[in-house]
Amino acid sequence: MGLKKIRQIRLLAIYSALSFGLIINLAPLAWMISTSLKQPSEIFTFPPDWIPDHISMDNYIGVFEAVPFEMYYVNSIVVSICVTLITVLMCSMAGFAFAKLRFPFRNILFILFLTTLMVPFHVIMIPLFKLTAQLDWLDSYQGLIIPQITTGFGIFLMRQFMLSTPDSLLEAARIDGAGLFYTFVKIVLPIHRGALATLAIFSFNFSWNNLLWPLLVTNSETMRTLPVGMALFRSIRTIDWALIMAASVMALVPMIVFFLLMQKHFIRGLTAGAVKE
Amino acid sequence: MSVIRKHWEAYLFVLIPFVHLLIFYLYPMLYGFVMSFTDWNGIESPSFVGLDNYKEIIFNDEVFHHALSNTILFAILSLLGGISVALSLALMIDKIVRLQNFFKVAYFIPVITPLVVVALIWTLIYTDKGLLNYFIQQLFDVGAVGWLTDKNIAIYSIIVTSIWQGMGFSMIIFLAALQSIPNQLYEAARIDGAGSFQTFLHITVPGLKNTFAFLTIYGLIGAFQVFDQIYVMTEGGPVNSTQTLVYWIYSNFKFLKLGYSSALSYLFFLMLLVISFIQLKLFYNKGQES
């Protein structure tokens, strides 16, 4: 047996293992889609039906009748987009200042932000809830958004990226009489587009998936975000799995589309800080 | 004041984040710390109880003890399981050229699936008449297994779910690390007549050391904060067998024991600090010596 043959067999083994693993890996998602298309009576048949006899989209309509699902959607979109935009703006400004500007107390301030990386959210969660209540922000967009608009992580990440901004460029802009804000918006931000996308995806994903904080600060059904609404779905009445799976598909689809369209940015965004570039 | 006048533009760049930090981070931290020494239901005025909350948690709170051991079990097993599956996948994907990106992307999909959705899908799979029981009953002659309702099994079912959701993340990071190991090293090893196992042990493993360090620190801290799966799948039951630290903090908050749950969160914070500190010492000191 030649070396080439051995290599071919090894490759075949690898492809088979990867394909088999992939089937197991994606089976739960396939089951979600399959269940979402079923009538209630077909959900628990033995043997399981991967492709239902009567494919029906009723559950997708049913979700909107059972709960104000459109509100969950709107709330999730509004909250995630606001959190993302403000976070990216705030963190890139602060990151730029810490990377490129000189001012008294710069390092102390930066270390102060870094220490927040050590503090898990759960430590400040309850006092933050009390504060939100005192501000009269419970059950409001302010309450959902404002506590989340800057993170030590975001500032740290942006500073790392912005360190590479060429000093000569900033100097040239200054000599041409451009103000700091003008330079930041017109020169600094455009060169770091990739970095901004990375942080944006990271923040969006975090906010879109976040369960705990929205669970604490929302009371009324129409203020719930998708994760909260779906987590509480089960407690509303007898469990209708077909409805729940239809809702799950709808919560997942935007992320999948978004992901497939911009895989590279997405993977970089979600693994931000883990891989040195 | 002249300092501010001279550097006012720079200060404007950090002003909002700084004010935000003061109001929404430092103030709550201080407030929570003070609260942890009180007995407070959030409505009447709090009464100072000194270290009573902490003593109660450490010496008498059996649910907390359950939560602690469950969280440690969860963290260790989900980390070990996740890292070993992810590493095997990455090693295989690294070897292929055709369809490499396809496999990378396809294995990553659970990572972008919202945790609540993940938890709901697996709850369905784990029900008595669910998919998993069907397969188990085809293979073995057993009755329906209570994957989430048997107190000896439930935590492991949640661990499997979490591994499924997280392994694509570690896989991508391993893959990036594998691809950054210089090819010359492998070629040199081959010329020296090293077998594939030796090459793996002496080139691949050392090349992945920092990645292991990162993934264990990041993974352990993340795993300690497990909440969503518990909330959706078991609510800490049956009989506290899936109770975890963050879920217990949350439950006490729901019971309006605000002082008590603040003390819990500060203990939790302390534990995470100790873990990060030990891990940093372990991994990074060694890394610097060699």
CATH topology descriptor of the largest domain in chain A = MetI-like fold
The helix content of chain B is over 70%
Structural class of chain B: mainly alpha
Named at the architecture level, the CATH assignment of the largest domain in chain A is: Orthogonal Bundle
Pair of chains with the largest interface and how many residues each contributes: A-B, 88 and 83 residues
Q: Tally the structural domains of chain A.
A: 2
Which fold name corresponds to the CATH topology of chain B?
MetI-like fold
For the record, give the distance between the C-alpha atoms at the N and C termini of chain A, rounded to a whole number: 42 Å
Broad CATH class of chain B: Mainly Alpha
- Could you state the oligomeric state of the chains shown? heterodimer
- Tally of individual helices of chain B: 14
Query: How do the helices and strands follow one another from N- to C-terminus of chain B?
Result: HHEEHHHHHHHHHHHH
Main β-sheet, spatial strand arrangement of chain B: 1-2
CATH superfamily of the largest domain in chain A: MetI-like
Mean pLDDT of chain B: 90
Helical fraction of chain A equals over 70%
Mind describing the biggest β-sheet of chain A? none
Could you tell me how far the N terminus lies from the C terminus of chain B, measured between alpha carbons in angstroms?
A: 50 Å
CATH architecture of chain B: Orthogonal Bundle
How are the elements arranged and paired?
The complex is a heterodimer of chains A (277) and B (290).
Chain A: H1 3-36, H2 58-66, H3 69-100, H4 106-115, H5 121-134, H6 141-145, H7 152-162, H8 167-175, H9 180-191, H10 193-209, H11 212-217, H12 226-236, H13 241-261, H14 263-270
Chain B: H1 2-6, H2 8-35, E1 38-39, E2 47-48, H3 52-60, H4 62-95, H5 100-112, H6 115-126, H7 131-139, H8 154-179, H9 183-191, H10 196-207, H11 209-224, H12 228-233, H13 245-254, H14 258-289
Helix pairs in contact in B: 4-8, 4-11, 5-8, 11-14, 13-14
